[in-house]
What does this fold into?
Amino acid sequence: MRQRVWSVFRKSVREQKRDLWVVGLSLAFAPLFVMIYWMMTGGSGTTSYGVLVINQDVPAVQADGSTLSAGQEVVYGLRGLTYENGGALLRVIEAINRADAETRLRNREAAALVIIPEDFSESLSAFRSGDSSANTDLTFIGDLTNPTYTVAAVMAMTVADSYTQNLTSAARPVNLVEIPLGNSAARTEFENYVPGLLVLAVVLMIFQAAMTPARDIETGAMKRLRLTRLTAFEYLGGTVLWLALVSVGSVLLTFLSAVGFGFRSQGPLWLAFVVAAITSLSIIGIGLIVACFSKTVSQAFVIANFPLGFLMFLTGAAFPLPRMNLFTIAGRSVALADFLPPSHAVVALNKIFTLGAGFGDVLYELVALVILTGLYFGVGVWLFQRTQMR
It folds into this structure.
């Protein structure tokens, strides 16, 4: 019996040598997710939440002659909020004005906006002097459908509340006012999940896009097609037409299902459909790149799981994550995840569904998606020509 077991073992090893991709990728899949989670936590195990601050406070002279700069002290408190290892909890960004700050919130470049009023120091100084009627508002603005807003806003409110209580020895000398961005306060829990589900429907097209050419390679159909002098562009053009039709059908069915279960969009649905359609084309391009390294359908399926992990977990499609900014172009920060199409789709769909954005409001995301689609398709055609059509 031991001899037979050993024979089967050797047979399995010899057969697997023909398909080392599957073994190697299977072994590397779990370490891939370790790396993804490392990137999601900023590499140091600490997540820093972006908070925009508009400090309009004018310092006030107190009864003892000293100057109180309460607004600046609150900003110092926000900057000083850290993890046990010294990593910053909040990434404080001074904003120019409210319109600019709200635009950055819509683009999800930050989680929350804190507005400190002009009379902040004056009101606190008067309260300390015995004027119990002295009162002022500290305003917090954010997209209530963005989970990072809740975390950032609670921490910022705690810092501001603790400072004012320590300064005045009063329970609540300042009103903490929360203003929802757009129509985010009226969204149901189900509606909050729809943008991510729509992106999921698009991202899953990577399997179909990778396995369709791989099937022709495995069955030998690709060899017969090469005899007809078919070019990579012609073959992939016809393949993409079919995949695009399937993708559009998937997006349309997802839309109709969401609407049927009560989903409401604050912006035009046709625009959201355009965003999803362009995103699906870029995903097909990535799938074609996967097909270039596949000899069988099973290989294509295994390899496709790797880009799927990045597309789902590093773009905000599954859950929000901190941005790893690389550089800035025309005032817009470019993060590592911005080279993955779903990152722009998530932001654009949230603007449309929750904030009622129009075409001009998501133009940046649409342009980025078109550029990425052209890039991935170009790489896919070039690789397919070199690996499969020679």
The first helix runs from residue 2 to 16. The chain has a mean pLDDT of 82. The chain has two domains: 49-186, 189-387.
